[in-house]
Amino acid sequence: MAPDFTLMTGIEITTLRASEETREQLSQLLIEVVADGGSVSFMHPLDSVVADAYWEDALTAAAQDKRVVLGAWDGDVLAATVTLLLDFPPNQPHRAEIAKLMTRRSYRGRGIATALARAAETVAVELGRTLLVLDTAVDGGAAHLYHRLGYTLTGEIPDYAFKPHGGLTGTLVFWKRIGPLRPPDLM
């Protein structure tokens, strides 16, 4: 489903499938990002059992076509990931949501997050989605990345979530049209 390709840096982006090794690497990445202050729904310190349970559920949902989890690999190392959420009500079959775009600190600044976001957009179009939405933390989020990729800022919600190390942060809500709107077939 996902376009498998290799970046000039040797990073390969693939659709992730459930396996113990994949789940372990996803969990390690999530723990690292949370420890580094990434506002991705979890608090620091993040227990490995909790991280593993999250990814087990996420990969199960992916196997049920409720989401797509993409990974950026540097050989055997998972450098980054992004999730495309697909499970929406019947009146929103054209929409998907970008979630959990995370890059290991040692791989940041190489264009991997940009490549993952574009790969998620490509997958969304292949799945007939025409509108993407996402949110990112005001403090330390990736707003600059989403602006660069052509997403439109809808607005800010203050005090949306706690930061991993404490204190509140707002969230910025973005959207992007990725194809022409096609109404669902009506009976």
What does this structure look like?
The protein is of the alpha+beta class and 187 residues long. The chain has one domain (5-177): Gcn5-related N-acetyltransferase (GNAT) (Aminopeptidase). It is 28% helix and 32% strand. It has helices spanning 20-35, 48-63, 112-126, 143-148, and strands at 5-6, 12-15, 67-74, 77-85, 95-103, 131-137, 152-162, 168-177. An eight-stranded mixed sheet has the order 1-2-3-4-5-6-8-7, with helices on both faces. A hairpin with a 2-residue loop joins β3 (67-74) and β4. α1 (20-35) packs across α2 (48-63). The chain is globular and about 45 Å long. The two termini are 29 Å apart.
Give the SSE string.
Answer: EEHHEEEHEHEE
Distance between the termini: 29 Å
The gross shape turns out to be: globular
Task: Give a short account of the largest sheet.
Answer: 8 strands, mixed
By CATH's scheme, which homologous superfamily applies? Gcn5-related N-acetyltransferase (GNAT)
Total helices: the number is 4
Mean pLDDT: 93
CATH topology: Aminopeptidase
Residue windows where pLDDT falls under 50 for at least 5 positions = none
Q: Helicity level, as a percent range?
A: 25-40%
SSE topology sketch:
Elements: E1 5-6, E2 12-15, H1 20-35, H2 48-63, E3 67-74, E4 77-85, E5 95-103, H3 112-126, E6 131-137, H4 143-148, E7 152-162, E8 168-177
Parallel strand pairs: 5-6
Antiparallel strand pairs: 1-2, 2-3, 3-4, 4-5, 6-8, 7-8
Helix pairs in contact: 1-2
